[in-house]
Amino acid sequence: MGFDEMDVSTIWMNGEYRDWEDATVHVLTHGLHYGTGVFEGVRAYDTDRGPAIFRWEEHLERLYNSTKPYDMEIPYTREELTEATLEVIRRNDLDGGYIRPIAFYGYDSLGVSPKDNPTDVAIAAWPWGTYLGEDALENGVDVMVSSWRKHASSQIPTNAKTTGLYVNSMLAGEEARRNGYVEAIVLNKEGNVAEGPGENIFMVRDGKLYTPGLSQSILDGITRDTVITLARERGYEVDDSATISRGELNTADELFFTGSAAEVTPIRKVDNVVIGEGTRGPVTEELQSAFFDLVERRTDDHEEWFTYVDEQ
To answer: Which candidate, 60, 63, 164, 72, places its Cα nearest to that of 115?
Structure first.
């Protein structure tokens, strides 16, 4: 669904609520030319108490931390960004959906150095369903190992969610789709498993969970952390600093992606090799159910992870 088909009307930008079509930037914006922006992807869920933003504080913390390598200063407090986000959800009359805060170097000069450019900030929100397809959550997705490698943290900071770095993700994802797959898996420079283009990855083997550690050039995913917590609460052993070789993917009992957009999505094939039974595995299903029970508030667990729009 394109934005023009959605019933959304308002974006917060630089301290003002603007009509959706008027939230624009100059063509010589620094961030457009050099990818000098940071962003977040956050979901709000429809609950009995109205829309609830999932782990907003953690996303906000990561947004501010992402600015640090770029010497970027967001000219708004966390409280101001929170209130703006809540109001955008209200003005767009959303029960749930996807939230995109972004900060980027704006328009002033076009040298590579951004020192003379302002930091522009915007927050949008819109309805967004299943990221990898309507049946992906139940039936899983077919993926390929991309020929594109994930950049190393010694080259560009991998713990910052930087706009320009998603060129790497786009190349990997589009390569996969051109070859008939739904999504990609990206290896790091050593040839070990890093992550998906917009997702972290988990492997299940003999009832134990493995996910690449931060040293493997991955983003420290908030949904990744959520699933690790849920798994350990259910008695699973989780190695969250794993090194996973490409070959181990093919012999896994189960594989699944996690991410704010992808949520918990099973992987049924890698490079046309069937994973496990070729269906959503039992561990994946248990953790996926636990995740949706949590975010849709069918349980009172982890109340501290939710910001309720109608109660602010």
So the answer is: 72
